[in-house]
Design brief:
The chain contains 10 helices and 8 strands. With 249 residues, the chain is α/β, with parallel strands linked by helices.
Length: 249
């Protein structure tokens, strides 16, 4: 397995160096977060931490409220997870996110992705994380990979004088909104490389100019397995690279 891992990484590095040589830059790479960079749902863990520890004004059964809303209108549900922070200082919410990360240490970052991102930084790529989770929840994980908070694109609301509001800020980073948010952040420069693990990342992967990677991180009994397999089908149709990280954790 180690030898296969090294060969796959070396082959991908070769493709990315070739793609970089064919373009003038800036060179962009973008990753989905949960299930693509790490084997955990950091957004949901953050929500659970808030329910248990942060004394927010929430419905009687916050999880049921969220799950029911997601069945009806996912973008509205995802935005609500940011809106519940209305009136909180941004620094406090970022501290909550950091605490969530620490509580789940050792954090299950996929080694392949860690090594790949280190290579991308060496090659002077601008690396983005594009997630349907709340931006603040994902920032600690991205920062451990050397990706600054400014290049984490996720669900967020406007911050005024350091205090969070409930007003949507930017595209909802879900499905087509992922590619939209990335292109907005890069001033229209398309990424050379993108990686994602579910059908919700399809538009993001389609935005890549040279290389796209579809990740499998779920086992057959896990709830995102079917949508990962749907993305694998699209990957085969589009001749994208496929990686299976499901046995790492």
């Amino acid at each position: 397995m180690a030898a296969l891992y090294e060969k796959e990484l070396a082959d991908l590095k070769t493709k990315l160096k070739k793609a970089k040589a064919e373009t003038q830059g800036p060179w962009i790479a973008a990753f989905d977060a949960d299930g693509t960079l790490w084997d955990i749902d950091l957004g949901e863990l953050f929500f659970e931490h808030q329910i248990q520890n942060c004394n927010l004004k929430l419905p009687t059964d916050p999880w049921k409220y969220y799950e029911d809303a997601k069945k009806v209108d996912p973008p509205t549900a995802y935005l609500w997870l940011a809106q519940i922070n209305k009136g909180q200082p941004l620094k406090r919410v970022q501290t909550w996110a950091e605490n969530t990360f620490v509580e789940n240490s050792p954090f299950p970052i996929f080694k392949f992705q860690k090594d790949l991102i280190a290579f991308l930084h060496e090659e002077r790529f601008l690396v983005y994380v594009v997630t349907a989770s709340v931006k603040w929840a994902v920032e600690p994980g991205a920062q451990r990979l050397g990706i600054p908070a400014s290049r984490v694109l996720g669900i967020t609301t406007k911050v005024r004088d350091g205090v969070i509001s409930d007003i949507q800020d930017g595209p909802i980073t879900y499905r087509a909104g992922k590619a939209e948010a990335l292109l907005k952040a890069t001033n229209g420069v398309r990424p050379i490389f993108c990686a994602g693990n579910t059908l919700g990342d399809l538009h993001l992967l389609e935005s890549a100019t040279h290389v796209a990677a579809a990740i499998v991180s779920q086992k057959p009994d896990e709830h995102l397995f079917s949508t990962e397999q749907e993305l694998q089908t699209q990957a085969r149709l589009n001749d994208w690279i496929c990686f299976d990280f499901s046995s790492e954790y």
